[in-house]
Fold this sequence. Notes:
Rossmann fold; 8-stranded mixed beta sheet; globular
Amino acid sequence: MLQRACFLPFAFALSAFALSAAAQAPKPQYSPTHWPVESGSFDIRGFHFGTGETLPDLHLHYLTLGKLRRDSQGHADNAVLLLHGTGGNAHSLLNPVFSDILFGPGQPLDITKYFIILPDDIGHGESSKPSDGLRMKFPRYTYDDMVRSQHQMLVEGLHIDHLRLILGTSMGCMQSFVWGETYPQFSDALAPFACLPIEIAGRNRMFRYMAMQSIRDDPAWDSGNYSHEPVEGLRGAASLLIIAGSAPQQMQKDFPTRQQAEDYVNRTVNAAVAITDANDFLYYFDASRDYNPESRLNSITAPVLWVNSADDFINPRELEIAQKLVTRMPHARFVLIPASMQTFGHGTHTHGEVWKNYLIELLTDSAKK
């Protein structure tokens, strides 16, 4: 039986409704003590953002598991980059429904064989973010900025010149496509889970825009100069995310009465609001504004395992976009997981038991002979 994921702090956003809106009351983020993680950081002096803005010191935090191995030529050959979703952080994929399925002995990402890197993206976790003090004067970062900073952290900070695998969930899924186009030779394989490589438009953009506008329309937000969090705006945003991250079958099973459904909403919204900074939320939600890798998909030459779930509100199967675009990449496979009591809507990307066997096939097929 699959262990159900809970909403992470307002790591809640896309990554945590990523972890299933069907969960019970929100809990604190998963403790890093379950796995022997090591914490690290890397500072980039004078980082230039795509907007033309510069941050004098971009601080990037990350966690690692396992030991880095190099081949006879000194190149890294067992490093795996795991990318979290919007609002998440380095701890997000330590969620037991992900890590317990993948990291143990004999499992696909066995940490006795692989060196796992879990970064806090720009604007997230312990990395530089608006709430550190700059508020709305923080550079308006994008996914391209995130990927460039990840690459610089790996090469200059960890001295890693090659990756065995990049696996990304939700926002990390979209970053995986950016990685494949920007640094096509850097990784042996890509595993983007729960996204589409197109401009974020239609209903996807609408719910993101509505969530951001809910905060901006709250007078307490005060153009980001609030003395206390804009609670009503955050409540509106949190409510939208419950719907976007929901899995209909799981929701109906877990909350079969009106009272149970309403109690869940109240618990979830209250917990999310209590731990969310409104400016951070606006920045990490808006980071997708110019994402659109569609025109360059044919430049992705690494083997790709692209997995979506049929009950994903954010990436609806009815659009049939993935089935058309997967053919543009020469070594890509698209898997649509059928909706069932084993799927969790958008959050299926974190439930390793659902797609583990596909990942094993990717690692086997992409292994250097």
